[in-house]
Design goal:
With about 120 residues, the protein is α+β, with helices and mostly antiparallel strands. It is about 20% helix and about 35% strand.
Length: about 120
């Protein structure tokens, strides 16, 4: 019997083919919801002081360099060649994965506010 072309009725008066399509649709919706929630939980290690669910994201570790701003030691996030965002030592944390991350909030006036920066821990030899 060809399942896709069947016209037999299942309980409730629905054809076999329609029941299969509804089942596939339900599975598809479930998978989409599952995939959409995965990235949020994959970086659940961000401290709440750094991230309110949308401020943090991975960046290339090559974009982050140690530096100074005035009398403060810290890190520069060099996402543009001529500009960068400075993070103090107090805003620095070790990353819990193999990537670097930055957390930057956007104020009501559209100004970027650096919150936290994460770098990979030094390799122990």
């Amino acid at each position: 019997m060809d399942l896709w072309c069947s016209t037999q009725k299942v309980a409730g008066g629905m054809s076999d083919a329609r029941a299969v399509w509804l089942l596939l649709l339900a599975i598809g919706v479930f998978l989409i919801v599952l995939v959409m929630t995965f990235p949020a939980s994959s970086h659940s290690w961000y401290p709440s002081t750094c991230c309110n669910g949308r401020d943090c994201h991975p960046v290339s570790c090559e974009e982050i360099v140690p530096g100074r701003l005035g009398m403060y030691d810290g890190y520069w996030w060099r996402r543009y060649k001529s500009e960068g965002q400075f993070f103090t030592q107090q805003q620095h944390h070790w990353s819990q994965d193999a990537d670097c991350h930055v957390c930057v909030s956007i104020s009501e006036t559209k100004t970027e506010i650096p919150r936290c920066i994460f770098t990979t821990p030094p390799v122990q030899s």
